[in-house]
UniProtKB/TrEMBL annotation:
InterPro entries: YdhG-like. It holds the Pfam family DUF1801. Residues 18-108 form the YdhG-like domain. This is DUF1801 domain-containing protein.
Length: 130
């Protein structure tokens, strides 16, 4: 079930971005129905066993979908983000979302995980969980 704070986040966006956020949250939550989801650092994020796996955020010109372990998914349409293992896809309209790709990526977010939950305790060292 999608946390009410995420629904509020989606509803606060402009119509075109709201459509993107609503579709993303629906597909993510449908596949990760057992995951905890909440607003984390002001953005919707889904967690498995306390580990962040996928989320999205509104940028100036798009909505960024972020997979914390996405660089390990071997997906050409996901672009490297940051210095760890994250990868992203940006959407300017709902029509840009390929639902088949998105579902595959969300499934990979469950199967392929790096331990972000303990990254501070390990002083920035990431260890692969799955």
């Amino acid at each position: 079930m999608i946390h009410p704070d995420i629904i509020d986040y989606n509803n606060q966006q402009m119509k075109s971005d709201q459509d993107i956020c609503t579709l993303l949250s629906s597909i993510i939550d449908g596949e990760l129905h057992d995951a905890e989801n909440k607003i984390w650092h002001r953005h919707p994020v889904w967690f498995l066993e306390g580990n962040p796996v996928v989320g999205y955020s509104k940028l100036k010109d798009s909505v960024r979908l972020l997979f914390w372990s996405g660089q390990s998914f071997d997906e050409k349409d996901l672009k490297t983000e940051g210095t760890f293992k994250a990868a992203e896809k940006r959407y300017a309209s709902k029509e840009e979302i390929n639902e088949v790709d998105l579902l595959r990526w969300v499934k990979k977010s469950r199967a392929i995980q790096w331990d972000y939950k303990n990254i501070v305790k390990r002083k920035g060292e990431l260890i692969r969980l799955k």
